[in-house]
Amino acid sequence: MVERVWRPGTALDIALTMSPHRHGGGDPTWRREADGAVWRTSRTPAGPGTMRVSVSAAEGAVEGRAWGPGAEWMLDTLPALLGVDDDRSGFTPRHGVLIEADRRHAGLRIGRSQRAFEALVPAVLEQKVVGREAWRAWRWLLAKYGERAPGPGDEQLRVFPPPEVWRSIPSWDWHRAGVEGVRAKAIVNAALHADKLEAAPDSAETDRLLRLLPGIGVWTSAETRQRALGDPDAVSVGDYHLPSVVGWALTGEKTDDAGMLRLLMPYAGHRYRVTRLLALSGNRPPARGPRMAVRDYRSF
Fold first, then answer.
1. DSSP states of 246-282 as a string?
2. Exposure winner among 79, 128, 206, 224, fewest CB in 10 A?
3. pLDDT reported for residue 182
């Protein structure tokens, strides 16, 4: 085990800041304890690792403990994961809902995992399906192909498989996971280019590389860059719910992608930050009309 203490110097909500890396209830790469401590696994450049992150309120310090070949890397990059590089310069909330959300969630930071392919796979699984369907597939694939996480944590914790494992998953196991051919092929093809994605120098180049890949569009690229690179301006255009959330919170009316982008123009450079805060505000339109159905591709 390796230990590290980091003092952020500002208010920090570790669970809220790290929550974008959690994919549904029962995510095998994530656990949260009753005292607020968070366990997270990752396949680092040095190998698999498990990390437990907690806060010592009395000392104003974040305490990290890690296990496995990737332990040192996870602790070295813990400040980045918790948003040490998050620059709020130029962000001035102008709408009442946004001002209140920013006040209530003062401990929110936009962090970066620095693991692009690890962020990409769940984003692809979440394409054009409801969350429960994507998260079920994520759990099944990690249980089947992820390795047992190092350290003393929950025995069900698993580490994200390496690219060569994703490339080797047979069609029948994608089917058992409930993933149809389009998403499966997108992941398998992306696995061939994982090294290039990890080596991209910035968000713009990562976006370019991602959108050259079949099955990867604007939404998937944004979701990946939000998590891997902490891009505060990466907007999830094409999201089923987000335009309505943004429109309702800022104008009291639903809108579409084009309308959402117009509303977010004053916040250029921080558009993802704004959508994150608005989603946390709870200010949502009434739930009326058709909902996306949960599909089970295993029965097809």
1. HHHHHHSS---HHHHHHHHGGGTT-HHHHHHHHHHHT
2. 128
3. 97
